UniProtKB/TrEMBL annotation:
<keyword id="KW-0472">Membrane</keyword>
<dbReference type="InterPro" id="IPR020846">
    <property type="entry name" value="MFS_dom"/>
</dbReference>
<feature type="transmembrane region" description="Helical">
    <location>
        <begin position="179"/>
        <end position="199"/>
    </location>
</feature>
<dbReference type="InterPro" id="IPR050495">
    <property type="entry name" value="ATG22/LtaA_families"/>
</dbReference>
<feature type="transmembrane region" description="Helical">
    <location>
        <begin position="147"/>
        <end position="167"/>
    </location>
</feature>
<dbReference type="InterPro" id="IPR024671">
    <property type="entry name" value="Atg22-like"/>
</dbReference>
<feature type="transmembrane region" description="Helical">
    <location>
        <begin position="300"/>
        <end position="318"/>
    </location>
</feature>
<feature type="transmembrane region" description="Helical">
    <location>
        <begin position="53"/>
        <end position="75"/>
    </location>
</feature>
<feature type="transmembrane region" description="Helical">
    <location>
        <begin position="389"/>
        <end position="408"/>
    </location>
</feature>
<feature type="transmembrane region" description="Helical">
    <location>
        <begin position="107"/>
        <end position="126"/>
    </location>
</feature>
<feature type="transmembrane region" description="Helical">
    <location>
        <begin position="268"/>
        <end position="288"/>
    </location>
</feature>
<keyword id="KW-0812">Transmembrane</keyword>
<feature type="domain" description="Major facilitator superfamily (MFS) profile">
    <location>
        <begin position="234"/>
        <end position="414"/>
    </location>
</feature>
<feature type="transmembrane region" description="Helical">
    <location>
        <begin position="358"/>
        <end position="383"/>
    </location>
</feature>
<dbReference type="InterPro" id="IPR036259">
    <property type="entry name" value="MFS_trans_sf"/>
</dbReference>
<feature type="transmembrane region" description="Helical">
    <location>
        <begin position="235"/>
        <end position="256"/>
    </location>
</feature>
<keyword id="KW-0813">Transport</keyword>
Amino acid sequence: MKLNKQQWQWIFYDWANSGYGILVITAVLPVYFKAVAHDAGISAANSTAYWGYANSFGTLIVSLLAPLLGALADYPRSKRRWLNVFTWTGIILTFTLAMLPPHLWQWLLGVYVLSIIGYSGGNLFYDSFLTDVADDQQMDLVSSTGYGMGYLGGVIAFIIFLLVQLSNGFGGRLSSYGVARFSFIVAAVWWIIFAWPLLRHGYQRYSVNAVANPLLDSFHRLRVTFSHIRQYRQVTYFLVAYFFYIDGVDTIFTMATAIGKDLGVNTTMLMLVLLVVQLIAFPFSLLYGWLAKRTSTRTAVLTGICVYLFICLYALRLDSLFDFWFLAILIGTSQGGLQALSRSYFGQLVPKESSSEFFGFYNILGKFSAILGPVIVGAVTQWTGQSTVGIASLAILFAVGLLFFLALPKLGQE
């Protein structure tokens, strides 16, 4: 199936914010933060815990606002407006990360928390645009392509960072801290360039009727949705399952480099592992889309959940670089596909004219789970002194998510 111009504009937003995802959330800022925290006398276990707590707190704000923001975006010509507000917030604060002196580690965490609000809020409206750019038969392909291209975009942004690092900061012009801060500038510029088509031209196909007071009407619509939640039984089952299994996915994503540092993996090797994971994730995201077409979206999602459950259990024996590589590759095979098909499965369940409102619930549960997971890992790591046990504790979340998702049917067109 050939993708149209509007679908490519949507797909390239995933490419755009992938620089933030890989350079800020996953690869560089966690290592940079642990380095500056170490310089400030913070232990490795505590800095890992603080990083987990910061990720949890950063998502809490968007989690609380997500349903209301989603409802507000369902009015005519509102979705693109809100997408711009949160995207530009994330971009500006990513630039700010690059401006902060290294010794201000508390400020670094604070600005990071605020940047997560922009990043996560932008993703809420981006996700809900899926129903505007693709019909039910196209959603698996478009969503999977979006995630795949996102990983490919992340690889290219990451390679730019690696080239600067391997050149010793432009021939010694930048210190190791300077290289890290340069990467934040790369992430922000990358975001601006490739998000611009959707920010400028994104077209909202579905909407609710315009009203005089959108804010009050949004509260009313949310109240009605809650009061009639029994009418959306499949949506409810999905959201409960999603709450648990996406918790583990997001937590592993945000805590991976910190765990690697605790295992003694050096920074250069961590960067190489992350690059390989991104390269693997690109084709496997597309492969999950193919699997969904050949079997069903439900079967493909269940496959991804089972892979992650195995990853958590295997983490109990994680004690070598080989083990770390093995789990990293497994993560690369399933991370993008599971997220992409969860998004398209949900998009096919919800009423199109209220997609942003329902994606608000989708995001609030995803974000609330992202609060729980890092706290679990941080607390178990501090309690046991072993970050591998912290990761293994996430297995219960995947198991619960698997049980709830098993109660869901194949979708009508499958």
